[in-house]
Amino acid sequence: MNENIIEVKNPVLSIQNLSIAYDKGGKYAVKDVSVDVKRDSITAIMGPSGCGKSTLLRAINRMHELYPNIVTEGKILLNDEDVYGMSTIKLRRKIGMVFQRPNPFPTMSIFDNVIAGYKLNGIRLKKSEREEIVETSLRDVALWDEVRESLFKKGTFLSGGQQQRLCIARALAFKPDVILLDEPTSALDPVATARVEDLLVELKKNYTIVLVTHNMSQAARISDNAMFMYLGELVEYDKTKTMFTNPKDSRTEGYLTGEFG
Amino acid sequence: MKAIAIRDNSNSRNTKNKIFLGIVIFFSLLTILPIILIVGELVVKGIGQINLSFFTEAAPDTLQAMVAKANGETIPGGIANGITGSILIVVLAAVMAIPFGIITGIYLYETPGKRYSNIIRDIADILQGVPSIVLGLIVYLWVVKYITHSYSALAGSVSLAIMMLPLIIRSTEETLKMIPGTLKEAAVALGVPYHKIILRVLIPSSFSGLLTGILISISRILGETAPLMLTTLGNPRINWDITHPTSAVPLLIWQFYNDPNMVELIWSSSLFLMGFVLTLNIISKRISAKHSIH
Protein backbone atom coordinates (compact mmCIF):
# COMPACT_ATOMS: atom_id res chain seq x y z
CA MET A 1 0.00 0.00 0.00
CA ASN A 2 1.30 3.38 -0.98
CA GLU A 3 1.80 5.45 2.15
CA ASN A 4 0.73 8.61 0.33
CA ILE A 5 -2.78 7.23 -0.05
CA ILE A 6 -5.04 7.53 2.96
CA GLU A 7 -7.54 4.87 3.94
CA VAL A 8 -11.25 5.56 4.16
CA LYS A 9 -13.66 3.75 6.45
CA ASN A 10 -16.92 2.38 5.06
CA PRO A 11 -16.29 3.71 1.54
CA VAL A 12 -19.03 4.03 -1.10
CA LEU A 13 -16.65 3.17 -3.87
CA SER A 14 -13.63 0.99 -3.53
CA ILE A 15 -11.32 0.89 -6.52
CA GLN A 16 -8.92 -2.05 -6.33
CA ASN A 17 -5.81 -2.48 -8.51
CA LEU A 18 -7.52 -0.85 -11.49
CA SER A 19 -5.54 -0.70 -14.71
CA ILE A 20 -6.89 0.44 -18.04
CA ALA A 21 -5.31 0.40 -21.49
CA TYR A 22 -6.94 1.69 -24.67
CA ASP A 23 -5.37 -1.14 -26.68
CA LYS A 24 -4.41 -4.67 -25.86
CA GLY A 25 -0.72 -4.57 -24.99
CA GLY A 26 -0.75 -0.79 -25.34
CA LYS A 27 0.22 1.86 -22.82
CA TYR A 28 -1.77 1.98 -19.62
CA ALA A 29 -3.89 5.10 -19.20
CA VAL A 30 -4.59 4.11 -15.60
CA LYS A 31 -1.93 2.11 -13.75
CA ASP A 32 -2.77 -0.10 -10.79
CA VAL A 33 -4.91 2.44 -8.93
CA SER A 34 -6.31 1.44 -5.54
CA VAL A 35 -8.37 4.01 -3.71
CA ASP A 36 -11.51 4.35 -1.60
CA VAL A 37 -14.05 7.15 -1.95
CA LYS A 38 -15.58 8.64 1.18
CA ARG A 39 -19.36 8.65 1.60
CA ASP A 40 -21.31 11.92 1.40
CA SER A 41 -18.35 14.05 0.47
CA ILE A 42 -16.72 15.64 -2.55
CA THR A 43 -13.64 13.90 -3.91
CA ALA A 44 -11.64 15.79 -6.51
CA ILE A 45 -9.39 14.11 -9.07
CA MET A 46 -6.63 16.45 -10.23
CA GLY A 47 -3.70 16.13 -12.54
CA PRO A 48 -2.23 17.42 -15.79
CA SER A 49 -3.87 16.66 -19.16
CA GLY A 50 -3.55 13.04 -20.17
CA CYS A 51 -2.87 11.78 -16.64
CA GLY A 52 -5.81 9.37 -16.80
CA LYS A 53 -8.19 11.22 -14.51
CA SER A 54 -11.10 11.22 -16.95
CA THR A 55 -10.46 7.56 -17.80
CA LEU A 56 -10.52 6.69 -14.10
CA LEU A 57 -13.78 8.60 -13.65
CA ARG A 58 -15.39 6.96 -16.67
CA ALA A 59 -14.31 3.52 -15.49
CA ILE A 60 -16.46 3.99 -12.40
CA ASN A 61 -19.73 3.89 -14.37
CA ARG A 62 -18.14 1.92 -17.22
CA MET A 63 -18.50 4.72 -19.75
CA HIS A 64 -14.94 3.96 -20.84
CA GLU A 65 -16.25 0.76 -22.41
CA LEU A 66 -17.56 2.88 -25.30
CA TYR A 67 -14.04 2.69 -26.71
CA PRO A 68 -13.78 -0.47 -28.78
CA ASN A 69 -10.49 -2.10 -27.72
CA ILE A 70 -10.40 -1.09 -24.08
CA VAL A 71 -8.70 -3.44 -21.60
CA THR A 72 -9.74 -3.22 -17.95
CA GLU A 73 -8.06 -5.05 -15.07
CA GLY A 74 -8.91 -4.88 -11.38
CA LYS A 75 -12.15 -4.28 -9.53
CA ILE A 76 -14.43 -1.45 -8.55
CA LEU A 77 -16.86 -2.09 -5.70
CA LEU A 78 -19.94 0.05 -5.22
CA ASN A 79 -21.21 -0.63 -1.69
CA ASP A 80 -19.35 -3.97 -1.85
CA GLU A 81 -20.91 -4.95 -5.19
CA ASP A 82 -18.60 -5.35 -8.19
CA VAL A 83 -19.64 -2.82 -10.86
CA TYR A 84 -18.21 -5.05 -13.60
CA GLY A 85 -20.66 -7.75 -12.60
CA MET A 86 -23.71 -5.47 -12.74
CA SER A 87 -25.80 -4.63 -15.77
CA THR A 88 -24.87 -1.18 -17.06
CA ILE A 89 -28.49 -0.10 -16.80
CA LYS A 90 -28.59 -0.84 -13.06
CA LEU A 91 -25.10 0.54 -12.52
CA ARG A 92 -25.82 3.83 -14.24
CA ARG A 93 -28.99 4.30 -12.24
CA LYS A 94 -26.82 4.13 -9.14
CA ILE A 95 -23.98 6.22 -10.51
CA GLY A 96 -25.03 9.37 -12.34
CA MET A 97 -22.76 11.38 -14.59
CA VAL A 98 -22.45 15.01 -15.64
CA PHE A 99 -20.21 16.12 -18.49
CA GLN A 100 -17.95 18.96 -19.45
CA ARG A 101 -20.45 20.61 -21.75
CA PRO A 102 -24.10 20.84 -20.73
CA ASN A 103 -25.91 18.27 -22.88
CA PRO A 104 -29.66 18.40 -22.32
CA PHE A 105 -31.63 16.45 -24.95
CA PRO A 106 -32.55 19.11 -27.52
CA THR A 107 -35.82 17.48 -28.54
CA MET A 108 -37.14 17.27 -24.99
CA SER A 109 -38.76 19.80 -22.68
CA ILE A 110 -37.17 20.73 -19.36
CA PHE A 111 -39.66 18.43 -17.64
CA ASP A 112 -38.83 15.49 -19.90
CA ASN A 113 -35.11 16.13 -19.61
CA VAL A 114 -35.26 15.64 -15.86
CA ILE A 115 -37.01 12.29 -16.17
CA ALA A 116 -35.16 11.35 -19.37
CA GLY A 117 -33.54 8.40 -17.62
CA TYR A 118 -36.94 6.92 -16.85
CA LYS A 119 -38.45 7.81 -20.23
CA LEU A 120 -35.62 6.48 -22.35
CA ASN A 121 -35.37 3.28 -20.34
CA GLY A 122 -39.09 2.74 -20.72
CA ILE A 123 -39.75 2.89 -16.96
CA ARG A 124 -43.38 3.90 -16.48
CA LEU A 125 -44.23 6.41 -13.78
CA LYS A 126 -47.54 7.72 -12.52
CA LYS A 127 -48.23 11.36 -13.27
CA SER A 128 -47.87 12.27 -9.60
CA GLU A 129 -44.55 10.41 -9.36
CA ARG A 130 -43.25 12.15 -12.44
CA GLU A 131 -44.19 15.55 -11.09
CA GLU A 132 -42.66 14.79 -7.73
CA ILE A 133 -39.37 13.58 -9.20
CA VAL A 134 -39.14 16.62 -11.48
CA GLU A 135 -39.89 19.07 -8.70
CA THR A 136 -37.52 17.57 -6.12
CA SER A 137 -34.71 17.16 -8.63
CA LEU A 138 -35.08 20.73 -9.88
CA ARG A 139 -35.31 22.01 -6.29
CA ASP A 140 -32.15 20.08 -5.43
CA VAL A 141 -30.25 21.94 -8.14
CA ALA A 142 -31.90 25.28 -7.24
CA LEU A 143 -33.46 25.53 -10.69
CA TRP A 144 -37.10 25.07 -9.71
CA ASP A 145 -37.92 28.71 -9.12
CA GLU A 146 -36.26 29.75 -12.36
CA VAL A 147 -38.05 27.26 -14.61
CA ARG A 148 -41.32 26.37 -12.88
CA GLU A 149 -43.23 28.57 -15.34
CA SER A 150 -41.55 27.11 -18.38
CA LEU A 151 -41.26 23.41 -17.60
CA PHE A 152 -42.58 22.45 -21.01
CA LYS A 153 -40.23 24.62 -23.00
CA LYS A 154 -37.17 23.06 -24.60
CA GLY A 155 -34.20 22.65 -22.26
CA THR A 156 -31.91 24.21 -24.83
CA PHE A 157 -33.50 27.64 -24.27
CA LEU A 158 -31.80 27.87 -20.88
CA SER A 159 -28.46 29.57 -20.29
CA GLY A 160 -25.33 27.43 -20.14
CA GLY A 161 -25.22 27.42 -16.36
CA GLN A 162 -28.92 26.57 -16.11
CA GLN A 163 -28.45 23.79 -18.66
CA GLN A 164 -25.64 22.32 -16.60
CA ARG A 165 -27.81 22.40 -13.48
CA LEU A 166 -30.57 20.74 -15.50
CA CYS A 167 -28.10 17.99 -16.42
CA ILE A 168 -27.26 17.55 -12.74
CA ALA A 169 -30.99 17.33 -12.01
CA ARG A 170 -31.27 14.66 -14.69
CA ALA A 171 -28.57 12.67 -12.92
CA LEU A 172 -30.27 13.20 -9.53
CA ALA A 173 -33.64 11.99 -10.78
CA PHE A 174 -32.57 8.37 -10.26
CA LYS A 175 -31.52 9.13 -6.65
CA PRO A 176 -28.06 7.74 -7.35
CA ASP A 177 -25.48 6.74 -4.74
CA VAL A 178 -22.69 8.54 -6.53
CA ILE A 179 -22.52 11.43 -8.99
CA LEU A 180 -19.52 11.66 -11.29
CA LEU A 181 -18.69 15.05 -12.77
CA ASP A 182 -16.17 15.45 -15.57
CA GLU A 183 -14.95 19.07 -15.43
CA PRO A 184 -18.53 20.29 -15.04
CA THR A 185 -17.73 24.00 -14.98
CA SER A 186 -15.06 24.28 -17.65
CA ALA A 187 -17.60 25.56 -20.21
CA LEU A 188 -19.29 28.00 -17.79
CA ASP A 189 -18.67 31.62 -16.86
CA PRO A 190 -17.46 32.51 -13.33
CA VAL A 191 -20.92 33.34 -11.96
CA ALA A 192 -22.45 30.12 -13.25
CA THR A 193 -19.40 28.23 -11.99
CA ALA A 194 -19.87 29.64 -8.49
CA ARG A 195 -23.51 28.58 -8.49
CA VAL A 196 -22.66 25.03 -9.54
CA GLU A 197 -19.94 24.87 -6.87
CA ASP A 198 -22.38 26.04 -4.15
CA LEU A 199 -24.81 23.46 -5.42
CA LEU A 200 -22.26 20.63 -5.17
CA VAL A 201 -21.43 21.60 -1.59
CA GLU A 202 -25.15 21.47 -0.83
CA LEU A 203 -25.60 18.12 -2.59
CA LYS A 204 -22.83 16.35 -0.71
CA LYS A 205 -25.11 16.14 2.33
CA ASN A 206 -27.01 13.40 0.52
CA TYR A 207 -24.78 12.28 -2.32
CA THR A 208 -21.23 11.15 -2.85
CA ILE A 209 -19.61 13.31 -5.47
CA VAL A 210 -16.52 12.54 -7.53
CA LEU A 211 -15.26 15.47 -9.54
CA VAL A 212 -12.56 15.67 -12.19
CA THR A 213 -11.20 19.17 -12.40
CA HIS A 214 -8.48 21.06 -14.15
CA ASN A 215 -9.04 23.93 -11.83
CA MET A 216 -6.92 23.60 -8.69
CA SER A 217 -8.63 26.42 -6.85
CA GLN A 218 -11.96 24.75 -7.47
CA ALA A 219 -10.67 21.54 -5.92
CA ALA A 220 -9.36 23.56 -2.97
CA ARG A 221 -12.65 25.41 -2.55
CA ILE A 222 -15.13 22.58 -2.57
CA SER A 223 -13.53 19.16 -2.21
CA ASP A 224 -13.05 17.24 1.03
CA ASN A 225 -10.57 14.73 -0.33
CA ALA A 226 -8.32 15.04 -3.35
CA MET A 227 -6.47 12.62 -5.59
CA PHE A 228 -3.47 13.65 -7.62
CA MET A 229 -2.77 11.59 -10.71
CA TYR A 230 0.29 11.68 -12.90
CA LEU A 231 0.96 9.56 -16.00
CA GLY A 232 -1.78 7.11 -15.06
CA GLU A 233 -0.59 6.62 -11.51
CA LEU A 234 -2.37 7.72 -8.38
CA VAL A 235 0.44 9.67 -6.75
CA GLU A 236 -1.30 10.97 -3.69
CA TYR A 237 -4.69 10.81 -2.02
CA ASP A 238 -5.39 12.85 1.07
CA LYS A 239 -7.68 15.35 2.73
CA THR A 240 -7.73 18.33 0.39
CA LYS A 241 -6.46 20.68 3.08
CA THR A 242 -3.53 18.44 3.91
CA MET A 243 -2.65 17.98 0.26
CA PHE A 244 -2.70 21.69 -0.53
CA THR A 245 -0.77 22.75 2.57
CA ASN A 246 1.54 19.81 3.00
CA PRO A 247 1.86 17.57 -0.06
CA LYS A 248 3.84 14.42 0.59
CA ASP A 249 5.05 13.66 -2.92
CA SER A 250 7.34 16.05 -4.77
CA ARG A 251 5.30 15.60 -7.96
CA THR A 252 2.14 16.75 -6.19
CA GLU A 253 3.99 19.73 -4.86
CA GLY A 254 5.36 20.52 -8.30
CA TYR A 255 1.85 20.43 -9.81
CA LEU A 256 0.25 22.49 -7.06
CA THR A 257 2.94 25.15 -7.26
CA GLY A 258 2.56 25.38 -11.01
CA GLU A 259 5.84 23.79 -12.05
CA PHE A 260 4.03 21.67 -14.63
CA GLY A 261 0.49 20.83 -15.78
CA MET B 1 4.71 60.39 -39.34
CA LYS B 2 3.83 56.91 -38.29
CA ALA B 3 0.10 57.69 -38.08
CA ILE B 4 0.08 59.01 -41.66
CA ALA B 5 1.79 55.90 -42.94
CA ILE B 6 -0.88 53.76 -41.32
CA ARG B 7 -3.73 55.82 -42.80
CA ASP B 8 -2.23 55.58 -46.32
CA ASN B 9 -1.95 51.87 -45.99
CA SER B 10 -5.55 51.45 -44.85
CA ASN B 11 -6.81 53.55 -47.75
CA SER B 12 -5.22 51.32 -50.32
CA ARG B 13 -6.42 48.27 -48.42
CA ASN B 14 -9.96 49.63 -48.44
CA THR B 15 -9.81 50.11 -52.20
CA LYS B 16 -8.52 46.59 -52.69
CA ASN B 17 -11.29 45.28 -50.44
CA LYS B 18 -13.92 47.12 -52.45
CA ILE B 19 -12.59 45.83 -55.78
CA PHE B 20 -12.48 42.32 -54.45
CA LEU B 21 -15.99 42.59 -53.04
CA GLY B 22 -17.20 43.86 -56.43
CA ILE B 23 -15.67 40.88 -58.19
CA VAL B 24 -17.22 38.46 -55.70
CA ILE B 25 -20.67 40.02 -56.09
CA PHE B 26 -20.36 40.02 -59.88
CA PHE B 27 -19.56 36.33 -60.07
CA SER B 28 -22.21 35.32 -57.58
CA LEU B 29 -24.79 37.24 -59.61
CA LEU B 30 -23.51 35.38 -62.66
CA THR B 31 -24.20 32.03 -60.99
CA ILE B 32 -27.78 32.85 -60.08
CA LEU B 33 -28.47 34.31 -63.52
CA PRO B 34 -29.27 30.92 -65.19
CA ILE B 35 -31.96 30.05 -62.63
CA ILE B 36 -33.57 33.47 -63.06
CA LEU B 37 -33.50 33.14 -66.85
CA ILE B 38 -34.89 29.58 -66.74
CA VAL B 39 -37.76 30.45 -64.42
CA GLY B 40 -38.47 33.65 -66.37
CA GLU B 41 -38.58 31.83 -69.70
CA LEU B 42 -40.87 29.12 -68.32
CA VAL B 43 -43.25 31.63 -66.77
CA VAL B 44 -43.48 33.72 -69.93
CA LYS B 45 -44.11 30.75 -72.21
CA GLY B 46 -46.05 28.47 -69.86
CA ILE B 47 -48.30 30.61 -67.72
CA GLY B 48 -50.91 31.01 -70.53
CA GLN B 49 -51.81 27.30 -70.41
CA ILE B 50 -52.17 27.08 -66.66
CA ASN B 51 -55.78 27.05 -65.45
CA LEU B 52 -57.92 24.77 -63.33
CA SER B 53 -58.36 22.09 -65.99
CA PHE B 54 -54.58 21.95 -66.33
CA PHE B 55 -54.52 20.27 -62.91
CA THR B 56 -57.74 18.27 -63.14
CA GLU B 57 -57.85 16.83 -66.65
CA ALA B 58 -55.75 14.27 -68.42
CA ALA B 59 -53.57 15.22 -71.37
CA PRO B 60 -55.41 15.86 -74.63
CA ASP B 61 -54.80 13.78 -77.72
CA THR B 62 -53.08 15.28 -80.70
CA LEU B 63 -56.33 15.78 -82.65
CA GLN B 64 -57.99 17.84 -79.88
CA ALA B 65 -54.87 19.95 -79.67
CA MET B 66 -54.74 20.46 -83.41
CA VAL B 67 -58.39 21.57 -83.61
CA ALA B 68 -57.95 23.97 -80.71
CA LYS B 69 -54.85 25.45 -82.29
CA ALA B 70 -56.61 25.87 -85.63
CA ASN B 71 -59.40 27.78 -83.90
CA GLY B 72 -56.93 29.90 -81.99
CA GLU B 73 -58.06 28.57 -78.59
CA THR B 74 -55.91 27.31 -75.73
CA ILE B 75 -55.28 23.58 -75.88
CA PRO B 76 -57.88 21.71 -73.78
CA GLY B 77 -57.08 19.21 -71.02
CA GLY B 78 -54.21 19.24 -68.61
CA ILE B 79 -51.57 17.05 -67.07
CA ALA B 80 -53.56 15.42 -64.28
CA ASN B 81 -52.52 11.94 -65.47
CA GLY B 82 -48.89 13.05 -65.15
CA ILE B 83 -49.32 14.67 -61.73
CA THR B 84 -51.14 11.71 -60.21
CA GLY B 85 -48.68 9.30 -61.81
CA SER B 86 -45.70 11.24 -60.49
CA ILE B 87 -47.21 11.26 -57.00
CA LEU B 88 -47.92 7.53 -57.13
CA ILE B 89 -44.46 6.61 -58.39
CA VAL B 90 -42.54 8.96 -56.09
CA VAL B 91 -44.48 8.03 -52.94
CA LEU B 92 -43.96 4.35 -53.69
CA ALA B 93 -40.25 4.93 -54.34
CA ALA B 94 -39.94 6.86 -51.07
CA VAL B 95 -41.69 4.12 -49.11
CA MET B 96 -39.15 1.64 -50.46
CA ALA B 97 -36.03 3.77 -50.21
CA ILE B 98 -36.46 5.67 -46.91
CA PRO B 99 -36.36 2.76 -44.43
CA PHE B 100 -33.45 1.04 -46.17
CA GLY B 101 -31.58 4.30 -46.64
CA ILE B 102 -31.96 5.48 -43.04
CA ILE B 103 -31.08 2.11 -41.51
CA THR B 104 -28.00 1.82 -43.73
CA GLY B 105 -27.03 5.41 -42.91
CA ILE B 106 -27.27 4.66 -39.19
CA TYR B 107 -25.11 1.58 -39.69
CA LEU B 108 -22.42 3.60 -41.50
CA TYR B 109 -22.49 6.23 -38.74
CA GLU B 110 -22.20 3.65 -35.99
CA THR B 111 -19.34 1.68 -37.53
CA PRO B 112 -16.91 4.23 -38.97
CA GLY B 113 -13.69 2.80 -40.34
CA LYS B 114 -14.94 -0.79 -40.35
CA ARG B 115 -14.11 -2.62 -43.57
CA TYR B 116 -17.68 -3.70 -44.21
CA SER B 117 -19.10 -0.21 -43.74
CA ASN B 118 -16.44 1.28 -46.01
CA ILE B 119 -17.46 -1.18 -48.72
CA ILE B 120 -21.11 -0.23 -48.31
CA ARG B 121 -20.26 3.47 -48.46
CA ASP B 122 -18.25 2.94 -51.66
CA ILE B 123 -21.05 0.93 -53.22
CA ALA B 124 -23.55 3.66 -52.35
CA ASP B 125 -21.29 6.18 -54.07
CA ILE B 126 -21.00 3.95 -57.13
CA LEU B 127 -24.77 3.46 -57.16
CA GLN B 128 -25.16 7.21 -57.24
CA GLY B 129 -23.05 7.29 -60.41
CA VAL B 130 -24.95 4.61 -62.31
CA PRO B 131 -26.59 6.26 -65.35
CA SER B 132 -30.34 6.39 -64.79
CA ILE B 133 -31.07 4.86 -68.19
CA VAL B 134 -29.05 1.80 -67.17
CA LEU B 135 -31.10 1.52 -63.97
CA GLY B 136 -34.22 1.72 -66.13
CA LEU B 137 -32.97 -1.13 -68.30
CA ILE B 138 -32.15 -3.35 -65.35
CA VAL B 139 -35.48 -2.69 -63.65
CA TYR B 140 -37.24 -3.36 -66.94
CA LEU B 141 -35.60 -6.77 -66.90
CA TRP B 142 -36.35 -7.49 -63.23
CA VAL B 143 -39.76 -5.98 -62.65
CA VAL B 144 -41.45 -5.37 -65.98
CA LYS B 145 -40.56 -8.77 -67.45
CA TYR B 146 -40.76 -10.99 -64.37
CA ILE B 147 -43.03 -9.36 -61.79
CA THR B 148 -45.71 -7.12 -63.25
CA HIS B 149 -45.46 -8.53 -66.79
CA SER B 150 -46.23 -5.09 -68.17
CA TYR B 151 -44.92 -1.57 -67.91
CA SER B 152 -45.97 -0.41 -64.45
CA ALA B 153 -45.79 2.28 -61.81
CA LEU B 154 -44.18 -0.29 -59.53
CA ALA B 155 -41.30 -0.78 -61.95
CA GLY B 156 -40.82 2.97 -62.22
CA SER B 157 -40.74 3.41 -58.48
CA VAL B 158 -38.23 0.59 -58.05
CA SER B 159 -35.84 2.35 -60.41
CA LEU B 160 -36.39 5.70 -58.67
CA ALA B 161 -36.00 4.07 -55.25
CA ILE B 162 -32.59 2.76 -56.29
CA MET B 163 -31.68 6.31 -57.30
CA MET B 164 -32.90 7.71 -53.97
CA LEU B 165 -31.13 5.15 -51.85
CA PRO B 166 -27.54 6.45 -51.98
CA LEU B 167 -28.75 10.04 -51.44
CA ILE B 168 -30.65 9.08 -48.30
CA ILE B 169 -27.84 6.86 -47.01
CA ARG B 170 -25.28 9.62 -47.28
CA SER B 171 -27.53 12.38 -45.96
CA THR B 172 -28.48 10.22 -42.96
CA GLU B 173 -24.84 9.50 -42.18
CA GLU B 174 -23.83 13.16 -42.56
CA THR B 175 -26.76 14.36 -40.43
CA LEU B 176 -25.97 11.92 -37.63
CA LYS B 177 -22.32 12.94 -37.72
CA MET B 178 -23.35 16.52 -36.99
CA ILE B 179 -25.10 15.55 -33.74
CA PRO B 180 -22.73 16.30 -30.89
CA GLY B 181 -21.27 13.13 -29.41
CA THR B 182 -22.06 14.50 -25.96
CA LEU B 183 -25.73 13.79 -26.61
CA LYS B 184 -25.04 10.12 -27.10
CA GLU B 185 -22.87 10.14 -23.98
CA ALA B 186 -25.70 11.69 -22.00
CA ALA B 187 -27.98 8.83 -22.99
CA VAL B 188 -25.32 6.18 -22.38
CA ALA B 189 -24.69 7.63 -18.91
CA LEU B 190 -28.37 7.14 -18.11
CA GLY B 191 -28.02 3.46 -18.89
CA VAL B 192 -30.16 3.66 -22.02
CA PRO B 193 -29.74 0.59 -24.24
CA TYR B 194 -28.20 0.99 -27.65
CA HIS B 195 -31.30 0.56 -29.81
CA LYS B 196 -33.23 3.08 -27.73
CA ILE B 197 -30.42 5.61 -28.03
CA ILE B 198 -30.75 5.37 -31.80
CA LEU B 199 -34.55 5.39 -31.90
CA ARG B 200 -35.30 7.89 -29.16
CA VAL B 201 -32.29 10.21 -29.05
CA LEU B 202 -30.36 10.18 -32.32
CA ILE B 203 -33.24 10.00 -34.80
CA PRO B 204 -35.46 12.61 -33.08
CA SER B 205 -32.49 14.95 -32.70
CA SER B 206 -31.60 14.64 -36.36
CA PHE B 207 -35.16 14.58 -37.60
CA SER B 208 -34.96 17.84 -39.55
CA GLY B 209 -31.75 16.74 -41.24
CA LEU B 210 -33.24 13.41 -42.20
CA LEU B 211 -36.35 15.12 -43.56
CA THR B 212 -34.23 17.55 -45.55
CA GLY B 213 -32.27 14.68 -47.06
CA ILE B 214 -35.49 12.91 -48.01
CA LEU B 215 -37.03 16.04 -49.59
CA ILE B 216 -33.87 16.74 -51.57
CA SER B 217 -33.71 13.18 -52.84
CA ILE B 218 -37.38 13.39 -53.83
CA SER B 219 -36.80 16.62 -55.72
CA ARG B 220 -33.87 14.92 -57.43
CA ILE B 221 -35.96 12.02 -58.74
CA LEU B 222 -39.06 14.04 -59.59
CA GLY B 223 -37.60 15.10 -62.90
CA GLU B 224 -36.16 11.72 -63.90
CA THR B 225 -37.35 10.73 -67.33
CA ALA B 226 -35.06 8.11 -68.81
CA PRO B 227 -35.73 5.24 -66.37
CA LEU B 228 -39.48 5.91 -66.51
CA MET B 229 -39.52 5.57 -70.30
CA LEU B 230 -38.32 2.01 -69.90
CA THR B 231 -40.44 1.10 -66.88
CA THR B 232 -43.74 2.97 -66.65
CA LEU B 233 -44.07 3.91 -70.32
CA GLY B 234 -46.89 6.45 -69.89
CA ASN B 235 -50.68 6.40 -69.83
CA PRO B 236 -53.15 8.80 -71.45
CA ARG B 237 -55.53 8.36 -68.50
CA ILE B 238 -55.25 8.82 -64.77
CA ASN B 239 -54.13 5.53 -63.24
CA TRP B 240 -53.77 4.48 -59.60
CA ASP B 241 -53.02 0.78 -60.20
CA ILE B 242 -49.34 0.16 -59.52
CA THR B 243 -49.21 -2.80 -61.89
CA HIS B 244 -50.37 -0.76 -64.89
CA PRO B 245 -48.52 1.63 -67.17
CA THR B 246 -48.59 5.09 -65.64
CA SER B 247 -47.77 8.57 -66.78
CA ALA B 248 -45.55 11.10 -65.03
CA VAL B 249 -44.94 14.82 -65.54
CA PRO B 250 -41.47 14.45 -67.13
CA LEU B 251 -42.81 11.68 -69.39
CA LEU B 252 -45.58 14.01 -70.53
CA ILE B 253 -43.06 16.73 -71.31
CA TRP B 254 -41.19 14.26 -73.50
CA GLN B 255 -44.43 13.26 -75.24
CA PHE B 256 -45.46 16.89 -75.81
CA TYR B 257 -42.03 17.54 -77.24
CA ASN B 258 -42.57 14.82 -79.82
CA ASP B 259 -45.96 16.15 -80.88
CA PRO B 260 -45.90 19.33 -82.95
CA ASN B 261 -49.49 20.17 -81.93
CA MET B 262 -48.73 20.22 -78.22
CA VAL B 263 -45.60 22.30 -78.03
CA GLU B 264 -47.32 24.88 -75.82
CA LEU B 265 -47.93 22.27 -73.17
CA ILE B 266 -44.19 21.61 -72.83
CA TRP B 267 -43.74 24.99 -71.23
CA SER B 268 -46.61 24.83 -68.80
CA SER B 269 -45.68 21.29 -67.72
CA SER B 270 -42.07 22.31 -67.29
CA LEU B 271 -43.15 25.36 -65.32
CA PHE B 272 -45.21 23.10 -63.06
CA LEU B 273 -42.36 20.63 -62.54
CA MET B 274 -39.84 23.37 -61.92
CA GLY B 275 -42.17 25.10 -59.46
CA PHE B 276 -42.76 21.86 -57.61
CA VAL B 277 -39.07 21.04 -57.29
CA LEU B 278 -38.23 24.60 -56.27
CA THR B 279 -40.93 24.54 -53.59
CA LEU B 280 -39.60 21.25 -52.20
CA ASN B 281 -36.10 22.71 -52.11
CA ILE B 282 -37.25 25.84 -50.35
CA ILE B 283 -39.25 23.85 -47.79
CA SER B 284 -36.28 21.62 -47.03
CA LYS B 285 -34.02 24.65 -46.61
CA ARG B 286 -36.53 26.22 -44.23
CA ILE B 287 -36.80 23.06 -42.18
CA SER B 288 -33.07 22.63 -41.83
CA ALA B 289 -32.61 26.28 -40.88
CA LYS B 290 -35.39 26.22 -38.32
CA HIS B 291 -34.56 23.00 -36.50
CA SER B 292 -30.79 22.92 -36.73
CA ILE B 293 -29.05 21.70 -33.59
CA HIS B 294 -26.05 23.65 -32.57
TrEMBL record, chain A:
Keywords: ATP-binding, Nucleotide-binding, Phosphate transport, Transport. CDD domains: ABC_PstB_phosphate_transporter. GO terms for biological process: phosphate ion transmembrane transport. It holds the Pfam family ABC_tran. Residues 13-256 form the ABC transporter domain. InterPro entries: AAA+_ATPase (IPR003593), ABC_transporter-like_ATP-bd (IPR003439), ABC_transporter-like_CS (IPR017871), P-loop_NTPase (IPR027417), PstB-like (IPR005670). GO terms for molecular function: ATP binding; ATP hydrolysis activity; phosphate transmembrane transporter activity. GO terms for cellular component: membrane. It comes from the Bacteria. This is Phosphate import ATP-binding protein PstB. The gene is pstB_2.
Automatic annotation (TrEMBL), chain B:
GO terms for cellular component: plasma membrane. It is a multi-pass membrane protein. Gene3D superfamilies: MetI-like (1.10.3720.10). Pfam families: BPD_transp_1. One of its GO terms (biological process) is phosphate ion transmembrane transport. Its main location: membrane. GO terms for molecular function: phosphate transmembrane transporter activity. The chain crosses the membrane at residues 20-44, 87-110, 122-143, 149-169, 201-222, 265-283. The keyword Transmembrane helix applies. Residues 83-284 form the ABC transmembrane type-1 domain. It is found in: Cell membrane. It comes from the Bacteria. Keywords: Cell membrane, Membrane, Phosphate transport, Transmembrane, Transmembrane helix, Transport. InterPro entries: MetI-like, MetI-like_sf, Phosphate_PstA, Phosphate_transprt_permease. The keyword Disulfide bond does not apply. Belongs to the binding-protein-dependent transport system permease family. CysTW subfamily. NCBIfam families: 3a0107s02c (TIGR00974). This is Phosphate transport system permease protein PstA. The lineage of its organism: Bacteria, Pseudomonadati, Bacteroidota, Bacteroidia, Marinilabiliales.
